[in-house]
């Protein structure tokens, strides 16, 4: 049977109609890939933003401070005010050898720093050089406090980024210049540009760090301590030390060792563990939603290919009649399915990367990018490989149906 001109016209019309269907089906794959890449990139950016808030802060640290007691102890009533002292630092080191660093902290808020005719609100923090191992500074200029500053009670300071910008708007190295805080002059020895949001006694960018020995005298704080920051030795979990730390401090001040509110301890290990668990769950949901959307797109590709095979029955019959083998038909259908899926998927990847790049630019301030809202190369390659596999799987059923078409049946159907 020789096909006439009307048969060829029908085949062309079928292919034209399939273009619109292919576009709609490809949009499903496009949207699925876009959702997957955008969610992964957005999750990475959000995680990095949160991690930047804690950047440089020791993950195995804890903070100890005094609060009004909530339990009566040794004839003393509850609600009693008490204060830690400098000697508590040595007590912790002596009774708990697993402690690596123990740093006392003193705070003063609502102060004002002045340089020439410029001023900036600030918070004063008195500490020791060991505090840099707990909250690592990011020095833009100069250095951090050292042991000589402590020994000789030097009136030196390390200023935060905001203080630096307010007092020295022209930029440059401010080290060696003197600023005034509460009528006392301090020589600037460093600029800390840390921007973490986990800070003790105020934000680092608004803090002026002084040797604790200087703060004790300048603010008449005597031997008192507001907070003791502690880190554990490598391989030791802070959770295993908190109860012993509370007991050591509590017994020295006649506080019930079981009074968790009277001797407050903030364990950063728990916080970082919660953060890791949170993002493990977020990543699982991202992949679940993304792969589910991709599978929905692949099912759509399979359905449209089934429709295509049914509408191209005559064309396939003609090809079989003029010598096309089943493997030729199989490879054609599979190739169409893979190409359709790959083109739509790659377009989705490119569009998602573009949107993520725009989001990243939107979070850039003063040339500093808050987070990278992007996916790595391996993730993109994995997504492309997944698309190829899904495209091949989506074309299997339609290809099998096309292989089963017999030329005689196809002509009879015509």
UniProtKB/TrEMBL annotation:
Principal cellular location given in the protein's record: membrane
Keyword Transmembrane helix applies: yes
UniProt topology in membrane: Multi-pass membrane protein
Domain called MacB-like periplasmic core: residue spans: 22-247
Location(s) in or outside the cell: Cell membrane
Pfam hit, one: MacB_PCD
UniProtKB keywords: Cell membrane, Membrane, Transmembrane, Transmembrane helix
Start and end residues of each ABC3 transporter permease C-terminal domain: 288-407
Transmembrane segments: 21-42, 284-309, 329-357, 377-397
InterPro entries noted in UniProt: ABC3_permease_C (IPR003838), MacB_PCD (IPR025857), Macrolide_Exporter_MacB (IPR050250)
Keyword match Hydrolase: no
PANTHER family in UniProt: ABC TRANSPORTER PERMEASE YTRF, MEMBRANE COMPONENT OF TRANSPORTER-RELATED
Family under the similarity heading: Belongs to the ABC-4 integral membrane protein family.
Record's protein name: ABC transporter permease
Organism: Xylanibacter rodentium
Classification of source organism: Bacteria, Pseudomonadati, Bacteroidota, Bacteroidia, Bacteroidales
């Amino acid at each position: 049977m020789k096909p006439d001109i009307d048969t060829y016209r029908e085949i062309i019309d079928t292919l034209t109609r399939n273009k619109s269907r292919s576009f709609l089906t490809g949009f499903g794959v496009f949207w699925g890939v876009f959702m997957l890449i955008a969610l992964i990139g957005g999750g990475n950016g959000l995680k990095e933003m949160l991690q930047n808030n804690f950047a440089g802060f020791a993950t195995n640290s804890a903070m100890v401070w005094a609060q009004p007691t909530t339990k009566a102890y040794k004839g003393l009533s509850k609600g009693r005010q008490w204060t830690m002292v400098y000697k508590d630092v040595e007590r912790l080191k002596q009774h708990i050898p697993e402690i690596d660093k123990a740093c006392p902290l003193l705070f003063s808020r609502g102060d004002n720093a002045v340089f020439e005719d410029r001023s900036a609100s600030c918070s004063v923090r008195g500490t020791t050089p060991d505090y840099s191992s707990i909250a690592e500074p990011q020095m833009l200029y100069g250095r951090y406090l050292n042991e000589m500053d402590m020994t000789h009670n030097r009136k030196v300071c390390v200023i935060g980024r905001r203080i630096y910008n307010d007092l020295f708007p022209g930029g440059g190295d401010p080290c060696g210049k003197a600023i005034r805080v509460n009528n006392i002059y301090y020589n600037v020895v460093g600029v800390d540009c840390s921007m973490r949001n986990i800070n003790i006694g105020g934000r680092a960018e608004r803090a002026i760090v002084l040797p604790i020995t200087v703060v004790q005298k300048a603010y008449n704080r005597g031997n008192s301590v507001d907070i003791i920051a502690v880190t554990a030795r490598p391989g030791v979990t802070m959770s295993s030390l908190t109860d012993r730390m509370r007991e050591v401090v509590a017994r020295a001040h006649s506080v019930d060792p079981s009074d968790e509110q009277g001797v407050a301890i903030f364990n950063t290990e728990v916080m970082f563990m919660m953060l890791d668990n949170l993002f493990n769950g977020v990543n699982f949901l991202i992949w679940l939603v993304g792969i589910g959307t991709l599978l929905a797109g692949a099912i759509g590709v399979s359905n449209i290919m089934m429709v295509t095979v049914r509408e191209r029955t005559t064309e396939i019959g003609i090809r079989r009649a003029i010598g096309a083998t089943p493997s030729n038909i199989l490879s054609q259908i599979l190739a169409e399915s893979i190409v359709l899926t790959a083109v739509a998927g790659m377009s989705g990847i490119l569009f998602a990367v573009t949107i993520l790049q725009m989001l990243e630019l939107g979070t850039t301030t003063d040339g500093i990018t808050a987070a990278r809202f992007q996916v790595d190369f391996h993730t993109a390659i994995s997504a492309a490989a997944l698309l190829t596999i899904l495209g091949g799987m989506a074309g299997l059923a339609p290809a099998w149906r096309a292989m089963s078409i017999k030329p005689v049946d196809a002509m009879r159907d015509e």
